[in-house]
Each structure stands twice: as structure tokens, then as C-alpha cells.
Amino acid sequence: MVTRQGGSFELAEVELDEPRADEVLVRIVATGLCHTDLTMRSLLPAEMFPNVFGHEGAGVVESVGTDVEGIAVGDQVVLSFRSCRECGPCREGLVGYCDQTLLLNYMGMRADGSTTMHQDGSPVFGSFFGQSSLARHALAHADNCVVVDPDLDLTLAAPFGCGYQTGAGTVLNVLHPDADDSLVVYGVGAVGLASVAAAVAEGVGTVLAVDLVGARLAEATRLGATAVDASGLEPAEVVARVKELTGGGATYAVDTTAVPAVVKQAQQSLASRGTLVVLGLGPEEYQLDAIDLLQGGKRVLASVEGDSDPLVMVPRLLAMRAQGRFDLDALVTTYPFEKINDAVDDVLAGRVVKPVLVW
Question: pLDDT category, 283, cuts 50, 70, 90?
Fold first, then answer.
């Protein structure tokens, strides 16, 4: 857990409640480490600590509440974000925009205000994305518990609960590109490479990957993209290179960096009436090129989890993986849980793409 705002991760003993009627107790096997875990430990207010993060958990069900259907003890599950499944957006299938998103995923407690964890009689905040899976056990719910094949390697499956479905969902659910289109992805960490893999699987005509890290660009090339190494290039040179490779500008762009200057480049790289989707979490503001935006009729929008319903998208992506059309296994580097801060250092330094913590 993280004991103070902006602090490091620490292993600690806490008391976890028994599952209530609508909850599922999962023994965690593996948890992907996502940049959202790292960002939120600094963004949440100081009074919301200590806090247990983790939202790419995968494990084995140990206990099921009496009201839960479709999940049984012994099932292997991939955990994802929560949604109420009852509000207007949820009924439309847009569960990432649930009216209760903040309460169910970020406020550190159940909907009734109770915390699922305690330490020495004091509350510990958690319920992060309805799971807090940087732990040996996590409490989840039917709406964020995806039952998967019992033979599936959960170490490789864990990132499908957030990062992979966000990147792939942005392509498959939001942009819908085809063979006549071009897509450029700025920042090819785990989320960006998932966008690349999905675009290649869909037969998109031109797929570009822009990054500073050679190892990430090599993975993008392996997946079928054309690499654009931005190291040593001025922003205008990056834009010019993308326009050259796409015949005047990309139909679509995806930014995962959350770096304002890079977001601006991504917008400028678009063809007229092109669309940019921003996915990164961090800065409060982006500065866009207003003349380029207005003269080109371009669109800039955001997406939550790639507009995915995890109960649909996770199985879809796992099926694509089984067919050899979504091969991100090589991105995973495993760490024992006690080495979590090493994993943080390595991913921030660009030494690894997708750290996964294992017990």
C-alpha cells in the first residue's frame, strides 16, 4: 500500500472484510502495474491515505456472495473497472461513462461509505477500480470480474483488464479505421502498443508508432507498424515525418503520453478532418494549435477505457490473442511483489513495457 500522498509502495498487513452478498473474494495471482496507479498516488488528496492501489488484477475466486451469479469458486478471473450497470450510459453499453464512476472506482470505499480494509482498527482506503489488486486478495463484483479459460496464464492476462483494452478499444470501439485509413500512435508503451496491435489486426492501411525509446519502437515494428524515432527530432520534424509517411497527414491519431507538446504534435500530424484521441492522465490542460484545428476541421476527443465494456472486450481480445492476432505477451516483465518499487523505477525509465507483479 501507499501510506502517504506521493509515497512509495510498501508491503503491509491489513485486514480485508469477508465478501458481502454482492462481492467476490479473489486470490490474486498477478497484477499489472499501470501508470494510473502511479499517477493517482500523487493526485488523490492527502486524507485518502493509506491507500491500496492496483486495477489490473487476475486471480482465482475463493468465495462468492449469495447475490452473485455467473461466477463460481475456483474460476479464474481477470479484474477490470466497476460500473453500476443501471444508469443511462451503462444501459447504452458505455459503462466507462457510468454515472457512478467516481464513487465506484476512485473514492477509496464502497458505495455506502465503508472501507473494505482496516489496519490496527483504522480504515485503509481501497476499492480502487473496484478491486485494489496490488494485494494477495481483493474484493471485486460481478460487473468487474471476467471469467476466463482455466488454462489461461494469468500473468499474461492481467494487463487485459485495463491497459490493453484501453489501447485496443480506442481503435476498435472509437475510431473504427479500415484499410484506406492511416493511424499514428504517439507513445508506444503498453496502451499504445495495444492500439498498434488492434489496428494491424483490423488491416489498417498505414500504422505508425512514434516514441523516444528504441525497444518500444522495435516492439511496434514487430507488431507491424512503421517506427518513427522522435529522439533528436524537433516537433516540426516529427510532424513532417508523419505527414510524409501518411501521404499528407494521418486519418487518426492516438496519444498515450499525456505530454502537452506531444498532444499538439499529434493534432498537427492529422489530415484534414482527422481525429485525435487522447488517453493519458496527468496534466490539467493541453495547448492545441487553434488555426490548424479550425482550418482543418479536426477533432480532438478523449476516451475512457477505449469505450470498452470489460465483460465484452476482455474476452474479445483474449480470443484475438488465441488466434495470433493480438500478440502482446512479449511486453510482460514479471516481478515478485516485494520488488514493486523496482518495477516502478524500470517502467518510468523505459527499461520495461509492462511490469506484472506476481505472488
Answer: confident
